[in-house]
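Protein modeling request. Please complete all fields; requests missing the sequence field cannot be processed.
Requester role: graduate student
Desired output: 3D structure, token encoding
Chains: 1
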Amino acid sequence: MEKRRTFDWIIISFSFVLTVLGLLGIGWLHVDSSTDAFIPTNADVVQINDRIKERFGSLDPVVVSIYAEDTILQPKYMEILKTISSDIEKLDGVSTANSIANVQHLEPSFDGVEAVYLYDGDIEALKNRIAEWPSFYEGTFLSADHTVASVLIQTTLDYDSKQLLHDLREVVAPYQGVVETSILGLPAVTEAISESLLSDLGILAPIVAILIILILYYFLRSFKATLLSLVPLIFSSSLALGIMAIANITFTMATMLVPVLLLIVGSAYTIHIFSHFFQNQDSGTIEEVLRSVVKRNTNPIIAAAATTAFGFLAQLSSPLGPFRIFGLLSFIGVVICAFSSLVLLPALIRVVYKKPNGKERMKQQGKDSRLMTAAIVVANRHGKVLLWVSMIILVIFLPLSYYFVESGTNMLDFFRPSSSLVKDSNRFNERMQGSFSMTVMIEPNDGVSILDPSTLKTIEGAIRTLEAEPVIGGVQSIIPFVKRMNQLLGPGEDEIVHTVDEEEVIFDFFAFDEDYFLGFEDEPFEAEEVVASAGGQGEYEIPSDPARYGLADESELANLIAQYLLLYSGNLDTLINDPLEPDATALTLVLKSSDTNQLRTVTNLISTLFPEDWKVEVGGGEAVALALADLVTRSQIVSLFSSLIAVWFLVWFTLKSPKLATFSLIPCLFALLAVFVSMLVFSIKLDIVTSLLAALCIGIGVDYAIHLLSAIVREDMSMERIMQTTGKAILANAASVALGFIGLLFSRFMPIANLGVLFCIAMATAAASALLLLPAIAVHYPKLIFKRRTKP
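Delivered output (792 residues):
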């Protein structure tokens, strides 16, 4: 006896040490909430992004927006904007930071064109300059009503997003109260998720634990037993966290669910042990009772854990790394949970319970008798009709409902509508072009220059078509700069410059000399007017008519455009890859939304706007989100079938019957149907969290079928008795698991809250279909279940 007790204390002490070490590992977890953590490194969109970055720099723009009550075009606000822009430019990780306070403006001068600061302290001059080029400034740097200004930040390729966002907050902090500010862009969204993941786990774990305590107490009616039952659950969850820390597994929104999931799933195992312990504790000593309980329940617990664990393990077939990690961790966690329920929990009982206590009994579930009686009445009287109608509904609506479920990984949708980040983004998107973006890299075929007028005209036409799409707020490209330079340096309407022999015509935009002003010596006022109006007489267009510019062909026009861009003193590296002979250009599509369907429409449209022999590639953060949505859909299909096949073989091995293995999938399939229909009704998208539901529904839902079919095929009880015993246990288990998942509603992330709701619906449907349909099959089609059926 003393040896047994010593061994129990060793088990408890060892488990306690592992639990503490696992919890200490939380500080070493590597958190990554970006889409990059999910997308495979060999995915096409990742390769495209690398090529775009190599030529045009970072694809992670950050926007600092400033709001004024009336107009931002006032000295006090402009000085604040100027200081903020200047301070941001000095930060590590910032390549450029442009705003109306520091951007250069092109205007005509005596020499042809001059680059001046858009804001030089003169508000009236600022307004006039904005009015000269409103299509460029408004929507990008300034809202149309002039109440919002933005600082557009181009980051370096190796920037530290967390540090940069921290520095940006410090830059704008002194001006809070004078102006409203917000920091937007994909880096801001991913950082907000990263910061909230661990804190969200810190909120969810206690809430779920409280719900589990209530469930355990309801069934066990003993506070001492409730606390002891929690220990294996905490042990397995802590160990999962420790494994993540030791193995340097990235803590994503998928893997964060593992500890919470183990708390919920493992409760069924501990209830199983304690319920049998209380029922039999008067039959002998504590040691004898526990030996009998553990022996009798080892196989059922292992069987239940195996189906759940292998349902999760099927996630290894997913193309997404975090899903594979989730499946593997859940598999390990469920195995640990089952093992600790059979080893650690009995050790705790032996230490705490010195002698039998007849007063402690598992709560008798008399109230559920009426539900079970109603279920068997339905199975007996209406079983055939119920079966056929149910099967028809399943066959028709399961594929249809899945087909119409939308997929999407808009990371802003992860937050609740009441969050400040969502409100700031919506307010900015309403007044400006948008805070989301995609990048299109265009490479014409060999022999075609980017600066050829025909090439630019094709791009301009594509931009015009794209801007007609509701989701696109604007398109940033080289086109406005070419047009503006042509407006400043090109010939006026009906003006052509000819050479003396008129065989070769050359337009010279530096042709103003002293002789041009002969005749104005005595009329200084008129001379000043001519100087003031020098340049700026051209058309705001892409030069396309060589004769009008005194040139021979398009190649000379391309050279003219190259000279335009050389004279432009601003940085165009994000738009063309070479100022003289560019062979690629980039369009930045500024988006008001990152809705998956709209992004897919735009992406499909892009490929139709350019010649087939051009190389056109779409990248950027929203392109990654779109590719991830497609991968999530593919992962859902693959993991769904993998889970069904894995569980089917496992049940076949357990029940020794392929027919029973097939019937065991009925609750799983109806649970999936309920999930997909609910997603359609509540407009819930299939994302990186809700797509895990298939494995959960199959892995946990199949247990109900196994327990009920096992009881039915034993033929040692009537159907009424089976429903009043095993049926009640199934109902209790479904209620406990569903109640545990209700705790996820308290998550600050919408996908996790949605997961909680959907899983509750799934468990209720799985339990109901198991308790109604499987007895109906046994009653009306006994040959499908029993090898030999004798009438009672």
